[in-house]
Amino acid sequence: MPGQRATEGQRKRQILDAAYQVVVQKGLNGLTGRDVAQVAGLSSGLVFFHFGSIEALRLALLDELIGWLIGLDENAATNSSATDFLALMQEEIGLQQTDHEKVGLFLQYWVLGMRTPEIKDRLRQALDDYRALFREPAREFLAACGVDPQEQAAESLAALAVSIVVGCAFQELLDPGWFDRERPGAAVPFLTQAAPASPQLPADTATRRG
Question: Would you say 122 and 59 are in contact if contact means Cβ atoms under 8 Å apart?
Answer without folding.
Answer: yes
